[in-house]
Each structure stands twice: as structure tokens, then as C-alpha cells.
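User: Some background: our group keeps a shared notebook of sequences we're curious about, and every so often someone picks one and asks for a predicted structure to add to the entry. Today it's my turn. The entry only has the sequence so far, pasted here. Could you supply the structure so I can complete it?
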Amino acid sequence: MLRLVTATLVTATLAAACSGDDREPVIDLGADAVGTCLDFEDFTETTVESLPIVACNERHTHEIYATAVVTDEPVYPGFEALEAEAQVRCLAEFEEYVGISAFDSELFFSWLLPTLNTWERDDDREIVCVIGEGNGAPLFSSIRNARR
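Assistant: Of course. Here's the predicted structure to add to the notebook entry:
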């Protein structure tokens, strides 16, 4: 499971693994995930079995612009601590990806976080930074170097 947290701190849980005995491991996005586009437009459940990956030239709501691995915590640090770390790490990567400061941009950023279950069960330590339109409008291309 991952938590998606928007800049307005609205939270939804996203499961990147199946439930039950036949569950798959958590999706390991790694550095190759940067530039991956996601469509959460029809997202109505609190859990999903996989991330809704789409081509960036198709309608989408978010784009992964950075990933970070939490390596300095041997035990689950808690949602609030992970959220604070995600905010710092994602803010630090925003300008390099978009080409403009997050404070000057019309875009918003948010993040996906490991949950206690995925931390303990799947050794999930990845923070995934995502970006989207500040007004909630869909995207139809990558926002890498969009400078807006």
C-alpha cells in the first residue's frame, strides 16, 4: 500500500499489491519511474491493485517527477514523519523537473508513501513524488521542463 497525499493534505491509500495469500510484491518504481504518467481521474476507492499508468500523451492527472528511498529508518517512522520527509524531498526536486520554483508554479505536487504494512511486509521504503495541474484539469503531455 502507498498513501497519496496532495498539497492540501487530502489522503487516500493506494495498494500497489494484491490482498490475500496470492498478493504480488509492492511495485518497485525506482529511478526509472521518473516521467511516468498516472491517471487517478476515476479513482473512487481507497485502495487499488496497481498504479494507473498511462502514456503521457494521453489524458492523465499526475506525473512522477522524483523518487526517494528512506534508508535511515530501520523501523516504520510513522505517517507524519514520512510525510514531512516527502514534503522536503519532493519540494527539492520540483524545480529541477519543471524548470520553475514550486512557489511560482501553477502546478501542485504531492507524494505516495509506504504504509506500515508495506514497510514491514515488503520492505517498501520509497517515496514517490507526483505533480499535476493546480486547478485539477487533466494533463495531455509531460510537464518535464514545462516552466509553468
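Suggested note for the entry: The chain is about 20% helix and 25% strand. Residues 5-26 have pLDDT under 50 and may be disordered.
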